[in-house]
Amino acid sequence: MKTRTRRSALLAGALSAALVAISAFGAAAQDGGTAKVRVLHASPDAPAVDIYADGALVLENVAFGVASSYLEVPAGPHQFQVVATGTMPADGAVIDATIDLAADTMTTVAATNNLESIEAQVIADAPAPVADAVQVRVGHLSADTPAVDIAPDGGEEIVQGLAYPTVTDYLTIPEGQLDVELRPAGAVDGWVALNPGGVLLANGHSYSIFAIGSLDEGTVRLLTLIDAVAPPAMAKVRVLHASPDAPAVDVYADGAAVLTNVPFGVISDYLEVPAGDHLIQVVAAGADPADGAVIEATLSFAADTMTTVAATNAVAAIEAQVLADAPAPMKGKAQVRVVHFSADAPAVDIAPDGAKVKKAIIKELAYPNATEYLALPAGAYDLEIRAAGAAETAFDIDEVTLDAGTSYTVFAIGSLADGTFTVLPVVDATLAAE
User: Fold this and answer.
1) I need a labelling partner for 321 at 20 to 30 A (CA). Which of 26, 52, 186, 388 fits?
2) Who wins on pLDDT, 157 or 197?
3) Which architecture characterizes domain 327-430 according to CATH?
4) What pTM was computed for the model?
5) Reduced 3-state DSSP string for 3-39
């Protein structure tokens, strides 16, 4: 992968004026998809420049060592012209190149080498950031600096023999401070190792570190660009109001209302939230959490998990139950679990209607516990709930139809004492359509 740039200037601040570029690119937009391109000024003795794309000014007054943000452009060939700031391409461009940008690609175009020998480097960017590591590559864009080995300060080389204008592949390293040392590759006379500084690298980021400047002028330094950031890891959370005598509630997450006016017996759809810790507050509908919440808890949700948070028990003793959901729907069968969220109900058995005690499919399920998911043949089920070990029916469950390829949770909620006891079947997950 090659990249030449002696004086790279990418307009980060100049993008405000450069947004004119988008209209120019947009005019050529077609159904062939889009590409992303950024520009870097890495020619150390070149003045600030203006950059034209297809005849339109897209970046203005870009100084050495500046890189633009990525611009989204229609895929296909584009003419890029680099001129001294304030001049026109018709008066002569120091760089005039047509670059073909393929759909769904990312490219860095860098102006490198001294002004009298300025040239365009076209660098393919292919970042693939991961949440738990750093991805970094190094580019040698200092035209008068010999090939170098690159190492953490005082450590072993991570890149060997990197010559201008080469760019390495992406490497995966731990996050933290990386103090970079540029060492002569092999036996090179006339100069010693350079330590142009360090960079702080964070997990979930892909970086390009470009060595720019002039060895002769003593201006070699590092320019660190963020190529891409991994999307935040997400978790799925749903909320169940299972406190039988509590009024409708609002639910807040990290100070923001996420559910409003939720009555008893209602469960939300799964909400996607960033993995990590979240302050969950439950208040009477219309109330302000600052005036006091009936439930307030900091809960941690791991990435790629599913969780049910339920408010259970009578309002005087209301409590939050956190239930890990792990549905794994099966082809040709239904999957179901049962959750006992009725605080004043005893431990129960659940059996097919009329079955003997020993035929119960769930035994001695007590508040606030849940069964594992059970695999059952798809179809309609007439079930009854009994006090654990008893033969008499305490509660008949209306016929429940369980579909193949679907995972269910059946919640037993409410109060025996006030006659609000009921069951709430909900779908946790279904097999993706083939």
Assistant:
1) 388
2) 157
3) Sandwich (2.60)
4) 0.67
5) CCCCEEECCCCCHHHHCHHHHHHHHCCCCCCEEEEEE
